[in-house]
Amino acid sequence: MTSSKTLIIIYNADSTIRGKLQYAYRKLSSSSPDPACAACDITHGGLSLSEVPGWKNAKSDIEARGWKVIQWHRDEIEPEIKSWIQKEKIRYPTVLVKGQTDVTDTRQVMDSAELAECAGDAMKMVETLKKKAVLADGVQHSSL
């Protein structure tokens, strides 16, 4: 059975080659007015194109709790979610949940400051989501 609960991580970067180069500049430059992406630090260790082992483990843990995990760059966001983000004036990076209480429920659960507090540690992100009652303490196992 497919989960209707979705955890959406949105990066403060675009998916294009130009977007990746601009992100690398922001990450490496202390003079950039636009800060690097704390969500990228958690999932990809900053500049890597591959997910880091700590994030892979955390994502598996989140999925084992009945959540679908989506990771989007700014230019990949579905129109419905993008419209909601603009209406709510949410800044990137961010973590949203959709469908936790019902199919129409969408809300922000971590903002850029909270992501930055994780300092690239995926397990700190998971702990924050537990404290906010997004993730239950026990792992849910589906019955066959």
Tags for this model:
144 residues, disordered C terminus, alpha+beta, globular, 15% strand, Glutaredoxin
What does this structure look like?
The structure is a single chain. With 144 residues, this protein is an alpha+beta fold. The chain has a single domain (5-131), classed as Glutaredoxin, CATH 3.40.30. It contains six helices and four strands, in the order E-H-H-H-E-H-E-E-H-H. The protein has helices at residues 17-28, 38-44, 53-64, 79-88, 112-117, 122-131, and strands spanning 5-10, 67-72, 94-98, 106-110. The chain has a four-stranded mixed sheet with strand order 2-1-3-4. A hairpin with a 7-residue loop joins strand 3 and strand 4 (106-110). It is globular.
Q: What order do the helices and strands come in, and which of them pair?
A:
Blueprint: E1 5-10, H1 17-28, H2 38-44, H3 53-64, E2 67-72, H4 79-88, E3 94-98, E4 106-110, H5 112-117, H6 122-131
Parallel strand pairs: 1-2
Antiparallel strand pairs: 1-3, 3-4
> What structural class do helix, strand and pairing data support?
alpha+beta
Instruction: Indicate the CATH class.
Output: Alpha Beta
CA radius of gyration is 15 Å
User: If helices are DSSP runs of H or I spanning 4 or more residues, what is the number of helices?
Assistant: 6
Q: What is the string of SSEs from the N terminus onward?
A: EHHHEHEEHH
Poorly predicted runs: 139-144
Main sheet: which strands, in order across? 2-1-3-4
Number of domains: 1
State the major sheet: 4 strands, mixed
The count of DSSP E runs of length 2 or more, i.e. the number of strands, is: 4
Strand content: 15-25%
- The general outline is globular
What is the CATH T-level topology? Glutaredoxin
Give the N-to-C terminal Cα separation: 10 Å
Mean pLDDT: 83
Helix content: 25-40%
Q: Can you tell me the CATH architecture? A: 3-Layer(aba) Sandwich
